[in-house]
Design a protein that fits this description.
The complex is a heterodimer of chains A (about 260) and B (about 300). Chain A is mainly alpha-helical. In chain A, about 80% of the residues lie in helices and about 0% in strands. With about 300 residues, chain B is mainly α. The chains are: A mainly alpha (about 260), B mainly alpha (about 300). Chains A and B meet through helix 3 and helix 10 of A and helix 3 and helix 5 of B.
């Protein structure tokens, strides 16, 4: 595990060197403009829009980083041939994968935390105070981070057996499908054949449910998010990531790197 | 960059001339688009379900954008003095589907929909539908019942339903005590100056938006005018009984000792009597134009 930690730390350093955190400047500018402009062009949503815009920006920026850097984690090392030097050392392939995953999640955590801080500062600027109900915003940020961790795991898994382009398409596709899992469950099963209905239900539980992490509306309206829900989502992410990373490790350990 | 290079010379020439040309062209295109856009107000996606599905996980942000669009649409029409607000309902419909908890869109949306032109779309039926949808999504929010009662009271003149809405709202958490009083008063009296003035005063006090405040203030002023004119007509009737003819000028009531001086409207312009002997606003009063506009466009909508 210590070796995975070293890989993780280096992945984080590499991301910082690659100026991944420069997106924070864009986020800061977006929030500043929104804070000033929205009050002028709309009615009564100055506070709501800051939260929804802030959370959406955190989510979109995080998604772009997790998908595009996630699929490049393995392929870049292979293209540069640095992977061979690394695997010649006493580092197991699964440790390498785990380290890469942890490193990108750490990068995303730092990035998301910085954006969350910016969001809170803008909220203070707009509202002049913070209330207890605003803690829902921090929970929403935490849920975004959980979602991003799951996306990184998926991107990493796909990149273990296919090209970066296809891995990107698969990850984005699965993310979009994961947003409509609830719709899949609500299909009119009574008009389907029993086998199809059973398959649909089975599939809806197998696919990652990204709608679980969507509490943006609750955060925007200051509604409390139950502690049990936070725990369930955390466990869901841990279990799902474990499954995906295990599958990725299995594929990667059998991959012919010659 | 060495200026001996012919391409560099060309660039020095092309850059300012090119951008000057672009600048002029863009102005022309803007003018062209402006003339087109007056006829091209549209909501591309009218299906609220489709918009909701396409919004991925960003429905609340999209709701804010649609709400801002609704406000801008209403504001632009209001500034141009156009009474046709046919896209207001689709915009509000989509907004409230995307975020059913965005209570501001029900509250102000209903106000935009329900009032007579030029201040609204003159569709109180849609306003009721919007607020009822809001109540379904936010059943504990008492202000929505107040808004429902408001529409029934002012726009639909259905005092029984208005009273019921105020009574239902009074049972919600944190509801103001006057909700129950309003319910009882409307049930007993129907429309009255005191009730109307109280409701508009509450709109004025509870909003921070300048446009809504201005609208509420105008309604309060016009209510005061209506009540003043009613009282002056009562005095004129009494004058007619006493002297056998209706007063032609306000001075006659003052000379008869029935008024201490010539009464003024909320802007300070003295009231006058019409040729029919009814009290009305002075021709110089800016309130007269507002009153006539509301009466004229209101009758067109009916």
């Amino acid at each position: 595990m210590r070796r995975a930690g070293v890989v993780a730390l280096n992945t984080f350093r590499e991301a910082v060197r690659d100026r991944v955190l420069y997106n924070l400047v864009f986020f800061a500018l977006l929030m500043m403009i929104a804070a000033i402009a929205v009050g002028q062009i709309s009615i009564g949503i100055e506070q709501t829009v800051i939260v929804t815009l802030g959370l959406s920006a955190i989510s979109v920026i995080g998604l772009l980083i997790s998908v595009f850097i996630g699929v490049a984690l393995v392929s870049k090392e292979m293209d540069k041939r640095t992977l061979y030097a690394l695997l010649a050392k006493p580092v197991r392939r699964w440790e390498f994968l785990l380290g890469k995953f942890a490193g990108l999640v750490l990068t995303l955590a730092v990035n998301t935390a910085a954006m969350a801080l910016g969001l809170v500062l803008v909220m203070i600027y707009v509202k002049h105070t913070l209330e207890r109900s605003d803690s829902a915003v921090l929970v929403a940020v935490y849920f975004i981070l959980l979602k991003l961790a799951l996306i990184v795991a998926l991107a990493l898994m796909f990149s273990c057996f296919t090209t970066p382009l296809l891995a990107t398409l698969y990850t984005v596709g699965l993310y979009i499908v994961g947003l409509y899992v609830q719709e899949l469950r609500n299909l009119p099963v009574n008009v389907m054949r029993p086998a199809i209905a059973a398959f649909t239900k089975w599939l809806s539980y197998l696919l990652p449910n990204f709608e679980n992490f969507n509490v943006m509306a609750m955060a925007a309206h200051g509604k409390a998010i139950p502690g049990a829900f936070i725990l369930q989502n955390t466990l869901y992410t841990v279990v799902y990531c474990t499954i995906v990373l295990t599958a990725a490790a299995a594929v990667f350990s059998r991959r012919n790197l010659k | 960059m060495k200026l001996q290079n012919p391409i560099a010379w060309l660039l020095v020439l092309v850059l300012p001339l090119g951008f000057a040309g672009i600048w002029r062209l863009q102005h022309k295109i803007d003018a062209q688009r402006e003339s087109l856009s007056q006829e091209s107000d549209d909501v591309l996606l009218r299906s609220r379900k489709l918009v909701k599905v396409m919004s991925l996980e960003y429905a609340p942000l999209l709701a804010d954008i649609y709400w801002t669009r609704a406000v801008q649409y209403y504001g632009n029409k209001h500034v141009r003095g156009q009474a046709n607000l046919e896209l207001l309902w689709p915009l509000l419909d989509i907004t409230t589907t995307l975020d059913p908890n965005l209570v501001i869109s029900y509250r102000f949306g209903a106000m935009f929909l329900s009032q007579k032109a030029p201040t609204g779309a003159g569709r109180p039926d849609l306003a009721v539908q919007l607020i009822q949808r809001g109540i379904q999504a936010n059943p504990e929010y008492w202000r929505l019942y107040e808004d429902l009662g408001f529409v029934y009271y002012f726009d639909l003149k259905d005092y029984l339903k208005a009273s019921e809405a105020f009574l239902e709202g009074s049972k919600r958490p944190n509801a103001q005590i006057w909700m129950k009083v309003m319910a009882a008063r409307i049930a007993a009296e129907g429309e009255s100056f005191e009730t109307s003035a109280f409701l508009w005063q509450d709109v004025y006090d509870s909003t921070s938006d300048p446009a809504i405040k201005k609208n509420a203030k105008l309604h309060l002023q016009l209510l005061k005018v209506r009540e003043d004119c009613r009282q002056l007509d009562v005095l004129a009737d009494e004058y007619a009984k006493r002297y056998g003819k209706r007063p032609r000028r306000m001075n006659e009531l003052v000379w008869a000792g029935m008024l201490p001086g010539i009464p003024g409207d909320p802007l300070g312009f003295g009231y006058i009597f019409s040729d029919e002997g009814k009290a009305e606003l002075n021709l110089d009063s800016p309130l007269l134009e507002q009153q006539l506009l509301i009466d004229r466009l209101g009758s067109q909508h009916r």
